[in-house]
Design goal:
Blueprint (H helix, E strand, L loop, with lengths): L1 E4 L12 E3 L2 H8 L5 E3 L2 H32 L3 E5 L7 E6 L1 H10 L15 E3 L1 E10 L2 E10 L2 H8 L4 H23 L1 H15 L2 H8 L1
Parallel strand pairs: 4-8
Antiparallel strand pairs: 1-2, 1-3, 5-6, 7-8
Helix pairs in contact: 5-6
């Protein structure tokens, strides 16, 4: 389907451009959202009469978006979620979740303006684009963590995966010590197997002889 764009649409064109798009995209998004008109002869003429008003409205909306952008760009937000040891979330952080945080901080946005390609599913620092206007986009910082302390460590640039690895190593050492104390024979067999597995090939062959 050919449509006339009534505003700039990313990856499609500028206001007034006539572009060909998939029928479903036009019917489900561009036309009902008022972002385009079918490119019929009547609508081409209609667009010419609408053009001045559309341009004026676009400039006004862009000006408002610019004001918000100056305050919102670079802002940081924290989301606390439960997650597995490897950092995988039990669930995800959606555009709706992020929009709610931004609104609570006093900014007028909606979830459609949170330009996430996919929900966030891991602990860490995430750069999230926010499209305030077809011509105005900013980036906010979203820290996803299990608790406030972890969020603070992430903000300082600490690699929390290293901390988890150290905890796991300590747990393994404690388990090995307990095994050596309560089951010395089993521990000796395990150490013998590990030594054999780590021995160079030459040593293994000499042992066979």
């Amino acid at each position: 389907m050919e449509v006339i764009l009534l505003e700039r649409v990313a990856k499609l064109g500028q206001m007034g451009d006539v572009v060909r798009v998939k029928d479903g995209f036009a019917r489900n998004y561009l036309l009902p959202k008022g972002k385009a008109l079918r490119a019929t002869r009547d609508n081409r003429s209609r667009f010419e009469t609408m053009k001045v008003d559309l341009e004026a409205r676009n400039l006004e909306q862009k000006g408002e978006a610019d004001k918000v952008a100056q305050k919102l760009n670079g802002q940081s937000f924290i989301v606390l979620r439960q997650a597995a040891e490897g950092g995988q979330l039990y669930g995800s952080v959606s555009p709706r979740d992020i929009a709610t945080l931004v609104i609570e901080k006093g900014f007028a946005v909606n979830r459609a303006q949170i330009a996430l390609n996919a929900p966030i599913k891991t602990i860490g620092l995430h750069k999230v684009p926010v499209s305030l206007h077809p011509e105005v986009e900013v980036t906010i910082n979203v820290t996803v963590a299990r608790n406030a302390d972890e969020a603070a460590r992430l903000a300082r640039g600490e690699d929390i995966t290293v901390v988890r690895d150290e905890v796991e190593e300590e747990a393994a050492e404690v388990a090995a010590a307990a095994e050596a104390f309560f089951e010395p024979e089993a521990a000796e067999v395990r150490r013998s197997r590990e030594a054999t597995a780590e021995a160079p090939e030459g040593d293994a062959e000499s042992e066979k002889k």
